[in-house]
Amino acid sequence: MNHLVAIKHLISGLALLVLISSCSSSRKSTKRVDGPPPSLSKPAPAKKPEEKTKEAAKAPFNVPAFGKEVKKATYNIAFFAPLYLDSVFATSNDIPGRTMPRYVLPGLEFYEGAQLAFDTLQQQGYNLKVTVYDSKAKQTIPSLIRSKALEGTDLIIGAVSNPELKELSDFAKEKEINLVSGTFPNDAGISDNPFLYISNSTLKTHCDAIQNYVQDAFANKNIVLFRRNTTFESRLAADFKASYEKMESTKKVRIKEVIWNDATTTEEISKYLLTDRTNVVIVTALDENGAKSLLRKLSVSATTYPLQIFGMPTWDVIKLKEPEFKGLQVYYSSPYYNDKTDAYSRYISDYFRKTYKARPSDMAYKGFDLTYYFVKLLHTNGVYFNGMVSESPKVITSYNFLPVYLKEGGNTPSYFENKNIYIIQKGDSVDIKMNK
């Protein structure tokens, strides 16, 4: 039976154990790789009692649950990803063209990477009961909660967006379960859940990181922010201004703000640029069309004015192959960087090559990385690993989860967010990491 068909049957109750064969887009599965390489293997841990709970002297971050030491012989993990199986198999167990629809692939590939992480950890002796849920299934998260399907969960990992993230967050807060948001770069309006971890950093965090980088990296600089006259880009500009105000660096230079549109001419743009110093240009356009429209105008000015152009995290997928972009120094920010040379990345690549006859996508690497990172935290430190999250060694990329306090004067985190942002320069063939 085709693996996609097998998954359709096994997901009939909305959940399936991760021990089944991996679902795939157009790949044929072969024999599973025999265990992790020696560099990833660990001796099986000594068996712990069924459940061990100990109150700590002081609760980290003023959250009483974080002061408990709760270790178990087996941990229950709920994993959510947008697999769209009800839609894909709405009329048949067959897929036209034998390939998955494009909109399915990000969630599916994140799941494939996570499954490999779960399998690898279980081969190392971790006792895990993992249940995978399709976040885009007909059976909704509220109905799962009402049916008590998520009761007894020790950790939730989700590649989810709105409204699923808010629904899971409300449940996780009530039940005091750590929830890891793996892919959504937004807090979904959540402001009071210290059990929530946002790994794909918010745009405000990106604005802070770009601001800090450009202020410190260039000594003699002219900083110009180009935004369109929209509410969204106006808010991003306000975030950059707020970041500037809270900076204590003696090297900081005030940002000039310019509103542009498609009718803006290169002559109008050049009025804000200088010939005798580096012009640091920050562009708040997230969309490719808007970004390229302004880059074309800037490319004309680049022959006269020294430019360093900084874009948004969405620019990671923009290809600048057009001749007019040649020679432009373009950067973007990202919470994730993988040069694919470490032992884990080579292990993932080898597994996908042998199993699917294909290369793993960035989403597959991310699924493995995040899952491996947090399940190791859970296994090593117990259910409430929160006080140790900043001390866990990196797997592929580096995380820096810090408490975010949205309420003025609050002493309990609104949530935890990954504050580690890489500044990356776009290259002709390979993008280059500029900061540590």
Mean pLDDT: 88
Tally of individual helices:
11
CA-to-CA gap between the ends? 47 Å
- Extended strand count: 17
Low-confidence stretches: 1-32
CATH class of the largest domain: Alpha Beta
Protein architecture, described:
It is a single chain. With 436 residues, the protein is an alpha/beta fold. It folds into two domains: 3-201 and 339-421, Rossmann fold (3-Layer(aba) Sandwich), CATH 3.40.50.2300; 203-333, 3-Layer(aba) Sandwich (Rossmann fold), CATH 3.40.50. It is built from eleven helices and 17 strands. It has helices at residues 3-10, 85-88, 105-123, 141-146, 164-175, 203-217, 231-246, 266-270, 288-301, 343-356, 362-381, and strands spanning 15-17, 51-55, 68-72, 75-81, 128-134, 155-158, 178-181, 196-198, 221-227, 256-259, 278-283, 307-310, 330-334, 401-404, 415-418, 422-425, 432-433. The strands form three sheets. The protein has an eight-stranded mixed beta sheet with strand order 1-5-4-6-7-8-15-14, sandwiched between helices. A seven-stranded mixed beta sheet has the order 10-9-11-12-13-16-17, with helices on both faces. Helix 3 runs parallel beside helix 11. The longest helix is centred in the last third of the chain and has 20 residues, at 362-381. The chain is globular, with a radius of gyration of 23 Å. Residues 1-32 have low confidence and may be disordered.
